[in-house]
Fold this sequence. Notes:
The complex is a heterodimer. By secondary structure, chain A is α/β, with parallel strands linked by helices. Chain A is built from 21 helices and 28 strands. By secondary structure, chain B is an alpha+beta fold. In chain B, a hairpin with a 5-residue loop joins strand 1 (13-18) and strand 2 (24-28). At the A-B interface, loops of A face loops of B.
Amino acid sequence: MPKLTIDGLEVEVPAGTSVLQAAEELGIEIPRFCYHPRLPVAANCRMCLVEIEKVPKPVASCAQPVGEGMVVKTNSPAALQARKNVMELLLINHPLDCPICDQGGECDLQDQAVAYGKDKGRYIEEKRAVTEKYLGPLIKTAMTRCIHCTRCVRFLTEIAGVPELGMVNRGEHAEITTYVERALTSELSGNIVDLCPVGALTSKPYAFTARPWELKKTESIDVLDAVGSNIRIDTRGNQVMRVLPRLHEDVNEEWLGDKSRAAIDGLAKRRLDTPYVRRDGQLRPATWAEAFAAIEAGLSGLKGAEIAAIAGDLADAESMFALKLLMQALGSPNLDCRQDGAALDPKVSASWRFNTGIAGIEQADALLIVGSNPRIEAPVLNARIRKRVLKGGFKVATVGVKTDLTYAAQHLGDGVEAFQAVVDGENPFFDVLKTAERPMIVLGMGALARADGARILGAARHLAEKAGLVKDGWNGFNVLHTAAARVGGLEIGFVPGKGGLDTRGILKAAAAGKVKAVWLLGADQLPTNPLDSAFVIYQGHHGDVGAQVADVILPGAAYTEKDGTYVNTEGRVQRAQRAVFPPGEAREDWKILRAASEVLGHVLPFDSLDALRDALAAAVPAFATPDAAAPGAWGDFGEAGALDAALGPLGSAVSNYYMTDPISRASPTMAACTLEIIEAGNARTGTHG
Amino acid sequence: MNLGTRLYTWLRGEFVGEDTFGNRYYRDRKTARGNRERRWVMFNGEPEATKVPPEWHAWLHHTTDAPLEGARHAWQKVHRPNLSGTKYAYFPAGHDRRGGKRDKATGDYESWRPS
């Protein structure tokens, strides 16, 4: 390990470390624009110049590997002068439009011009101007402001794997461009807004709506996919203005999917802000007391087995736990949190978790993806797989409809017969898994939500045991969820009790009139026809599918409006925090259930969120330790039997990344993305708006 | 106009003129040496200070010796008293009394209505 001196302080770092990183170890900050720890080094902004003894000229510290006995000065007069000159050069063509620039207040160039720049410019010639580029509905450009750090190009090429941006021409004529004018197709494209050190790339939905200093920042958890990305919710007054990623090395690093970032305008549309009660076939606004009275009337005289509850994809763990206790008090065993009917075994925790862990992907050396498209089901997780692929020595194969995953993957086949061939050892990829030291399999909801899902799960377990996916210190069996609430629901045990019905059973029984009342906790991804004759209580925040068929609507809170616990696909318990208040008469979901339980005569044993969390932690110990993910206990799960090839090829559970839940379906930005990116190239007919 | 003012005007007042709204202006017939003459107005109808038009306002407050000319320019508007509390009162755009339709603001949301 080379030892070097930076500003008179000695530091020993591994060989290959750059001078800039070594300085960071010591807590010395060197200004930079193009350098980013997660991106390849470009060294083209020259802002990180330092003086190194015995080197005649200033050196770009981000690209200079450390050497034994190096003596570096980061704040010598020569280094400071060099930075001043670089800053003067950058500002030659950068417009001085900070007052009308969205980056103002959080701009690296602004900050560093104050800290390291000259107090006045000497440039009196014409500035250059660059034409705007169109990058889709999420990213607004002002390319004259670009300082050519190429962070955006490197991010899309290396991390997102969608090389749609590039730099053309040289010198003063250099431009960042998409080559052909069209929207970026990456699901991670929003991150280039965060990466841009100046105001060249800014968020289009957020454009000119707020300044960073007037926003209240709340650290929370994203629920629009099952990764549980850590986010920061920026609010002004009672409105969510934007969502930014927060650093969590084991989950999302510092990236965030476009849906999680831009679907928030859906939080201000189609909101349920008052209770409704159906009278004479029409939903009429009501008071809470009237709604609870209607529920009491609707449930009175019903036996426990005639009542059912289904939890949706965005439900928090607290409200699911409260609903489970309420259903138990009412004597109903019919509850399910798997509204898509996924055949997850509620008894064995290893059967529903992403046991390897998202960070664990980086240790794996072979991967089989079955019935999943991680690129659209969990883009941040897909970026982690891509990161592992780029390191080399990692074989990826997929079973299912062939798609572009942004990295090379061997396509074994569309249908279950290809999967069966791997399980039976007939496909050579079985040997790849068998000989690999740390092999992984990722099972998607596209495989498990089929009618033969339980048999696919059983076959996958068989494969895991046969190919040695599960061994000491390594569990390579992974389920990739698409719903943020799913793992939490399974941990709590929001699944059919003894003799209870699952989602399919509830719907069938409701159609047959055997289940007379159904409580939908934000469940919108259901065929609602079977519920027509049943008494439906819909508790949720958006007027989506569930609200249409409801007899009583209880307006709940969206994820930005309540303190909630969510469990991500790894089984990591994370706490989301309230950033704004629910609109109108809407209330936090656990409070609604607590109030309803009192009307129904089965008072739930908690009066505060803390008491509820204590009860939850006592019932399920995993909830007592937030932010810990561990592989589940292995066991016997799934069913044996032949897989049903007649059900067609294995697809992804998500068809349109931009619209998967009530919030993103209500979002105008997501609708624009769907039109521009998903439906780009599709012929438009006369019925299009 | 209370009785005291009427009596005082009858005993001491000298009529100066009348504005276009029918308000009558008076001043003292005699002024003690060293004192400034008193000037006052007998309102036509309700006593309301803002009924005094600007040309008389200047005279009334001893800014000018004589009332100003009336409308000297085509663009001069007719004087209007304070309309607060009347049906002609001003309400900003978006006020409930002007239809309540205002521009979008932070925190606004669209609520769902059953179809």
